[in-house]
Amino acid sequence: MTTVTQEAGAPFGAAPPPADGAGESAIVTEGLTKRFRGGQVAVNALDLAVPRGSVFGFLGPNGSGKTTTIRMLLGLVTPTAGTHSVLGLPATQALPRVGALVEGPAFYPYLSGTANLLRFDAADPTAPRTTARRRVAEALERVGLSAAAGKRYRNYSLGMRQRLAIAAALLGPRELLILDEPTNGLDPQGTREVRALVKEIAADGTTVFVSSHLLAEVEQMCTHAAIMRTGTLVAQGTIASLSGGLATRVRIETPDTADAARVLGTFGLADVRSEAGQVTAELGGHAPERINAALVEEGVAVRGLAVLRPSLEDVFVGLTGEGFDVDG
Amino acid sequence: MSTVDTSTSPGAGSGVRAGEARRTPGLVPVAETLETTERHARPETPTPPVPSARERWAFWRLLGSELGLTFRRPRNLAMLAVIACVPVIIGVTLRIVGGQGGMGGIIADVAGNSLMLTFFALSFLVLLMMPVAVTVVAGDSVAGEAGAGTLRYLLAAPAGRTRLLLVKYLNAAIYAYAVTAVVALSALLTGLVLFPAGPVTLLSGTTITMAEGLLRILIAVGYVGAGMAALAAIGLALSTFTEVSIGAIAGTIVLVIVCQVLRAIPELDSITPYLLPTWFTNFDAVLRAPVDFGALREGLVAFGAYIALFGSIAWARFSGKDITS
């Protein structure tokens, strides 16, 4: 363990220099690799760059190495090879400024919500005791658990447990939140609440690194994303740039597929595909309403016209040639 | 704005040139503006990030939190309560048996003086009951947190591995002393209620005052507590190897029982000095006149060796362990 001494007078969580030597990245990994005993490679040569201020979605099916990566970032698991830095520091030194939720909540069942949070606050050597009660109350307030603060954790519902875990991640002034599957086990209402909370936290300038196996969730919450598959990074970038790799398509529902395909061809649309009852093509820069007008003019019976923007799922399928294991 | 900055910034050569340039109103050389902009930006150049400062009493706060968990946990309190009952039961039994008269030896000794019950209770409980209680807390210390998943959150807090292990050990050692003290206190109170108070007759036949008797009880508690703390080191070491606390607890208790069995085999006399439980009962040295400090010292050295050995094993294992629970 690295013992770090600094001017004693520095306030808790004093705003660090705005950026770091490594640029604007909250997390940087280079060649990060974890091979567990028994030879199984959980994470393979991962080069991740999480920009400061982003909401970064870490996507991948279960078992793709997301949690192992997070455990390495938090110093719980020692990498076999490669380096990583968090907030420009060696990971263990940055941890007081990092809030984390790893693989679901874990608390002492016989303690109340407040007592549980005080326990984890006591474990952080940089957290001042004098403000502990206030910070715990604020964190509970923020996740809407104030009313259940004195209740034993044993009697919490699954959603309350998850929220308590998020409260624990918000105990101090954090610059980075690492949330591993934050909506796991939550009902739709709880899921929406978590999403709103993440947006709110991100709006304060905190970088949020959120892992998920749910594509739609990442698409809704995140500004950036990385896609993992069997321990390997497949792609990373802004959501827009990831989706931008695929073309927007137009889909015309019509019984006259042959005519429709011909009209689309005259517009110069690429990759025209006719299927039963519908024709699709890359939209390019064309205005869909012009296409519709042309189709009607040519007497094609248009039952529906849709512009298909590529989703992350399409990106994923495009990159890996595989479907996404959503359940499990 | 930038020109004001340059005029006030001392020393730099460009500052002087900027000053000259300003004498020609409206004519600011492009190169000059670039330079001043650069210099204006310089204070914002990021310095290397620094780790957060540590709070001064952080270690003791964590130890306090740990003790709070241990001494508020119903299971641990129940063990203390059960252990407190045993001297009472022994005392009442001896009182009944002793009342019938005609009993010699140790029973007569205990029945004859209020303080002797304390030594008797310690020598009886130190064989198994006290080790079990201490082992439950020590064996659970790391494995219990790992099994519940709280270990990952403690380490991500970040508690620090060496720091957490030290806190865990101190906590177990303090519980070991609490167990010893509870036995002594319970036996002392029971003895004072049931048996006559007064000067104590030692094993060697010498008589000491009651005050000195109490002092010797204190020495015995210090010694037995150290022995229990040595056992706690074994429990802690085993605890770092598993995520199932019952495994670490059972392993340590089996170790104690095996040691007791080995001690009972006369042919194995040569190895008994290396077995930890051999030294537990050495506290009877305080019943000699004068106190056999040599025997106590030997025992304490053995305890120290066990603490150093198993403390190192625990540290070696825990500091490099992958926390996957």
From TrEMBL, chain A:
Q: Which SMART domains match?
A: AAA
Out of the domains of life, which is the source?
A: Bacteria
A molecular function GO annotation:
ATP hydrolysis activity
Q: What is this protein called?
A: ABC-2 type transport system ATP-binding protein
PROSITE patterns xref list? ABC_TRANSPORTER_1, ABC_TRANSPORTER_2
Region Disordered, as annotated, extends over 1-23
- Describe the location of the ABC transporter domain by residue ranges: 27-255
Which keywords fit this entry according to its UniProt record? ATP-binding, Nucleotide-binding, Transport
* Organism this protein belongs to: Nonomuraea jiangxiensis
Keyword DNA damage set for record: no
Q: Which family does it belong to?
A: Belongs to the ABC transporter superfamily.
Is Transport one of the keywords? yes
UniProtKB/TrEMBL annotation, chain B:
* Positions of the UniProt region annotated as Disordered: 1-50
- Which stretches are tagged as biased composition: Polar residues? 1-11
* Organism superkingdom: Bacteria
Instruction: Cite the entry's keywords alphabetically.
Output: Membrane, Transmembrane, Transmembrane helix
Which residues span the membrane?
A: 77-97, 117-138, 172-195, 215-238, 245-265, 300-318
What protein name does the entry list? ABC-2 type transport system permease protein
